[in-house]
Write a structure and sequence with these properties.
This protein is α/β, with parallel strands linked by helices. It has a single domain (3-134), classed as 5'-nuclease (Rossmann fold, 3-Layer(aba) Sandwich), CATH 3.40.50.1010. It has 7 helices and 4 strands. It has helices at residues 7-15, 23-37, 45-52, 58-68, 78-93, 100-112, 122-127; strands at residues 3-5, 41-42, 115-117, 133-134. It has a 4-stranded parallel β-sheet.
Length: 139
C-alpha cells in the first residue's frame, strides 16, 4: 500500500537531527525511511510547497528541493478538488473543523487507495467521518 505523507512527517524526517528526537519521533523517522526504501511514499504539490516554505537560507532551500525531487507529485485532477470539498462539507456537517490542505490530502489518499501518514491529530477526527485510512506510526 502506498502512503501519502503529510508535512509534519517530512519535516521530522528531513529537517531534524536524530539526537534531537524523542523515542516516538525516532520510530516515526525509521518508518518513514522504510517507506522510502520500499518506494511507497506519495507526494502532493501542496505538501511540497509547505515543506519548502519558511526556509530563509537559499542554500538550504536548494538542498531540500533537490532531496524532494526524488518524489514526483501525484497528478491532481478536478475530481480531487471536488471530492476534497465534499469531504470538507461532510466534516463541517458533523462539527469537525478542517483545512483545505488536509481535505485535499484526504481526497488524494482516497483516490489513490493510499493511507495517510501524519502526526497531526486532526486526521484521527477526519477518519471517523471520511473513508480514509491512516498509516499507524506506533508499534
Amino acid at each position: 500500500m502506498r502512503v501519502l505523507v503529510d508535512t509534519p512527517i517530512w519535516s521530522l524526517a528531513l529537517r531534524r537531527q536524530v539526537q534531537n528526537l524523542n523515542p516516538v519521533e525516532i520510530r516515526i523517522k525509521a518508518l518513514f525511511s522504510e517507506l522510502v526504501a520500499d518506494g511507497r511514499v506519495m507526494m502532493v504539490g501542496l505538501v511540497r510547497q509547505e515543506i519548502l516554505s519558511g526556509l530563509r537560507d537559499p542554500a538550504q532551500f536548494r538542498r531540500l528541493r533537490e532531496r524532494l525531487a526524488a518524489f514526483p507529485d501525484f497528478q491532481l485532477r478536478t475530481a480531487d478538488f471536488e471530492r476534497a470539498a465534499e469531504m470538507s462539507n461532510t466534516c463541517a456537517s458533523r462539527g469537525i473543523a478542517s483545512t483545505a490542505t488536509d481535505m485535499l490530502i484526504c481526497s488524494v489518499a482516497y483516490t489513490a487507495g493510499a493511507a495517510i501518514m501524519s502526526s497531526d491529530r486532526d486526521f484521527m477526527g477526519y477518519s471517523k467521518s471520511l473513508p480514509i485510512r491512516l498509516f499507524t506510526t506506533v508499534a
